[in-house]
Amino acid sequence: MKVEYDENTCIGMFQCVAEWEAFEKDKSKGKAVLEDSEEVDDGVFVREVPEDAEFDAKFAARTCPVDAITIYDDDGEQLIP
């Protein structure tokens, strides 16, 4: 499973930070940061989701009010949102 986070879409509500420890607050930007991720496009970050964190990652994506977080399965199919 993979998570994709679009920092440009993020509005800094930080619900994702409360749901999954891979997200942290960046108060200087007013945005969340996806730890251990790679920037694959301007402001778009991707990382693998450990098996023991899949539930939390999915919940973080579901709670994002602007759909800045997308979850993909191992075949690249979009699961959330």
UniProtKB/TrEMBL annotation:
A single GO molecular function term of this UniProt record: metal ion binding
Coiled-coil annotated residue ranges, if any: none
Keywords: Electron transport, Iron, Iron-sulfur, Metal-binding, Transport
InterPro entries xref list: Fe-S_cluster_ET
SUPFAM superfamilies the UniProt entry points to: 4Fe-4S ferredoxins (SSF54862)
Name this polypeptide is given: Ferredoxin
